[in-house]
């Protein structure tokens, strides 16, 4: 490819990105003049003596992925897309090791699938699909003493869990219990929304944060690294009812709740909730 063809590909991708991320809060060019010079070169308004522009388009794409704030920084080499762009990903939910593994795996993906083609959108899509493999997983259990009766609250709990990609369950009635598992940032977002509702009393009774390994990373004992999906105890999120009884039909059978948890390897959580052994 010639410099003109490289520049044409770069400009076409920039225009596509600008249409997909129209707000500066989503797509921010650090040097708009570099884009203007690139366009001038492609349009042929630059003299042949000038040659291709020496300045390189650089920009940031800012997205919320699985409730985590992610910034994708990109710089175009002159020969892009015949060579890969310089892409850096920043996510406050990842530690240094997780971030390093993510960069390594993203680089492998781009080299194997995108060399010779514009690839920034492919990188963003890959991150959306794979970020959960690197972010810590959390389990939060929040008993809502006194109760969960309100239909709006129950609807919010179901909708928020689906929106944030969380699994777990909620038990309405008295006592009320909510348990969610998923990416750490998503669990914390869910908790912030939940506690902002009006409650007589609500608290996190148990929380567990588990570090995850990147794709292909091996555990020290030679086994496969843990992934978020391998750690999940629930297949999705549901509102669970356990033989409702009482005058208002709002008291649940705690024995059935214990067996529900124990079947998922969470029998010990029952004691954390209620301070008694399940049976």
UniProtKB/TrEMBL annotation:
Q: RWD domain: from which residue to which, for each copy?
A: 12-134
Q: Can you tell which superkingdom this protein's organism belongs to?
A: Eukaryota
In Pfam terms, one family for this protein is Prp3_C
Name the UniProt record assigns to this protein: RWD domain containing 2B
The uppermost taxa in this organism's lineage are: Eukaryota, Metazoa, Chordata, Craniata, Vertebrata
């Amino acid at each position: 490819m010639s410099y003109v063809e490289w520049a044409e590909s770069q400009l076409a991708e920039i225009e596509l990105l600008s249409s997909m991320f129209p707000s500066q809060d989503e797509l921010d060019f650090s040097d708009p003049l570099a884009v203007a010079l690139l366009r001038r070169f492609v349009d042929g308004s630059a003299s042949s003596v000038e040659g291709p522009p020496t300045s390189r388009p650089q920009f940031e794409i800012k997205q919320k992925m699985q409730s985590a704030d992610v910034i994708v920084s990109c710089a175009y080499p002159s020969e892009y897309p015949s060579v890969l762009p310089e892409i850096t990903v920043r996510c406050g939910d990842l530690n240094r090791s997780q971030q390093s593994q993510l960069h390594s795996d993203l680089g492998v993906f781009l080299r194997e699938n995108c060399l010779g083609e514009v690839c920034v959108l492919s990188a963003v899509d890959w991150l959306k699909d794979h970020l959960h493999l690197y972010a810590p997983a959390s389990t939060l259990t929040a008993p809502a003493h006194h109760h969960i009766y309100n239909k709006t609250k129950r609807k919010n709990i179901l909708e928020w869990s689906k929106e944030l990609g969380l699994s777990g369950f909620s038990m309405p009635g008295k006592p009320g219990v909510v348990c969610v598992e998923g990416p750490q940032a998503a669990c914390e977002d869910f908790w912030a929304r939940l506690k902002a509702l009006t409650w007589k009393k609500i608290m996190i009774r148990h929380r567990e944060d588990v570090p995850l390994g990147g794709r292909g990373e091996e555990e020290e004992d030679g086994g496969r690294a843990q992934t978020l999906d391998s750690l999940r105890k629930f297949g999705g999120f549901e509102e669970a009812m356990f033989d409702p009884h009482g005058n208002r039909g709002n008291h649940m059978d705690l024995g059935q709740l214990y067996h529900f948890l124990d079947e998922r390897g969470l029998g010990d959580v029952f004691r954390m909730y209620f301070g008694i052994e399940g049976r």
